[in-house]
Amino acid sequence: MAIGTLGHALLGLLVQRECTGYELTRTFDESLAHVWPTKHSQIYPELAKLQAAGLIRQSGAGPRGSKTYAATAEGLAEVRRWMRDTIPSESVRTERMLRVFFLWLMPPEEAMTYLREVGGRHRERLAHYEAIAATIPAGDPANRMSRIAIEAGIRFESAMGEWASWAVDELEKCAS
Amino acid sequence: MAIGTLGHALLGLLVQRECTGYELTRTFDESLAHVWPTKHSQIYPELAKLQAAGLIRQSGAGPRGSKTYAATAEGLAEVRRWMRDTIPSESVRTERMLRVFFLWLMPPEEAMTYLREVGGRHRERLAHYEAIAATIPAGDPANRMSRIAIEAGIRFESAMGEWASWAVDELEKCAS
DNA sequence: GCTTGACATGTAATTTCTTACATGTAATAA
DNA sequence: TTATTACATGTAAGAAATTACATGTCAAGC
Fold first, then answer.
1. CA closest to D7 C1', residue
2. Which residues of A73-88 are buried (b: 16+ CB within 10 A; e: fewer)?
3. Shortest CA–C1' contact from B41: which nucleotide?
4. B154 φ, ψ (degrees, to nearest 5)
5. Contacts of B34 in chain A (CB under 8 A)
6. Considering only alpha carbons, which residue of chain A is nearest residue B29?
7. Which of B34, B99, B170 lies nearest to residue A92, judging by beta carbons?
8. DSSP letter string over A98-156?
9. Residue A117 above 70 pLDDT?
10. Residue A176 confidence (pLDDT)
11. In this structure, which long-range contacts are made by residues B170-175, counting pairs with CB atoms below 8 Å and at least 24 apart in sequence?
């Protein structure tokens, strides 16, 4: 019963603070899902696995049958081992970008519509990330890593938004 | 037997030109795998599925038992339908970026080492994409879409490489 | 009292993806 | 001639991910 990427991510979150499965699900939905999408139907079985492996323990119980989990010392050691000793997969999977390879199959009009949509999404997310970044007090060492992570999102969305605009311009140049 | 993202990607490649499974595998490894990783063990069964669905046909046979496939008219219609009428999944999956969320668990030294590595990878790929871009004749309408796709890679790697350098600087500032 | 929505946790079925197994051909270089 | 590499195609087993099924609590507003 080896622990995978999702298990280590959950472990990392539970080292930071104890959480219920529901809270972990929301944390994923709000932030981690941008780089590692997952559903509650995967999280709950994974928590059971982590508990069976002694990497987390149930630290409490709340209303509506909620259970709070916390990482054990072994769990902390395991997530550190994962970070230090294992090589992350290089792979990136994004259907939006995949489709760009097949835009030539579409009439230029539709290709441009697609690229405008993609650009719009990137700009939306950019605004969202910038709003989050604005709430992180600058220069606070405790939030340094959060700021670094959100900055990656900002630069990514910014670059891709600009790329989409540039791509539309390229297509327009040729249309005229 | 519904066709998924991989099936449509194969279809898209086979519309462009007829290929063997081996050639499709290499095309993925060299370019599409950057946005949609896959293995030959997934490609061969998928080709059988596409053929059974009448979306591709075997158009020839070569040495060493190789089979060449081409998209049928239905296949072309299907890939166009997919591009026009279906909404691409928004999700992006990247373990490298996931790990950034857990860098705070590591000593600053190791976090910086990680970020330097990430930066190095991005710069490597940037150089690779720029080399490819240099081989595409500028202003050639036939290669317009290829140029647009590779530009996305260039901007992405460039932005992420700069982000990694910035992140290292941020951590160094606090260390001193 | 009733309805809606957020909270909360799970399982089941299916599909997709990865890793490993398995086999064989043709060309090239030592 | 023999070893290595690139070509070439598949299957099997297992892990991971998605979608659907399934149930129930608590609070707020009507």
1. B64
2. eebbebbbebbeeeeb
3. D10
4. -60, -45
5. 92
6. A91
7. B34
8. HHHTTGGGS-HHHHHHHHHHHHHHHHHHHHHHHHHHHHSPTT-GGGHHHHHHHHHHHHH
9. yes
10. 63
11. B170/A144, B170/A147, B170/A148, B171/A144, B171/A148, B171/B108, B171/B111, B171/B112, B171/B115, B172/B112, B174/A141, B174/A144, B174/B108, B175/B108
Tell me whether strands A56-61 and A92-94 are parallel, antiparallel or unpaired.
unpaired
Please tell me whether the overall predicted TM-score, pTM, comes out greater than 0.85 for this model.
Answer: yes
Note the pLDDT of residue A1: 72
Length of chain B, in residues:
176
Which bases of chain D are under 7 A from a protein CB atom? 7-13, 15-21, 24-27
For residues A19 and A66, the answer to whether their CB atoms sit within 8 Å is: no
pLDDT tens for B113-131 read 999 999 999 999 999 999 9
Is any atom of nucleic acid chain D found less than 7 Å from the CB of residue A86? no
A98 vs B27: CA distance, rounded Å = 13
How many Å apart are A11 CA and D23 C1'?
28
Give yes or no for a contact between B44 and B21, defined as CB atoms under 8 angstroms apart: yes
Integer Cα distance of A85 and B121 in angstroms: 18
- Spatial contact of B111 and A53, defined as CB atoms under 8 Å apart: no
List CB-based contacts (under 7 A) with strand C: A 20-23, 25-26, 40-41, 44-45, 47-48, 62-67, 91, 93; B 2, 4-6, 37-39, 41-42, 63-65
Q: Of A72, A77, A64, which is closest to residue A22 (Cα–Cα)?
A: A64
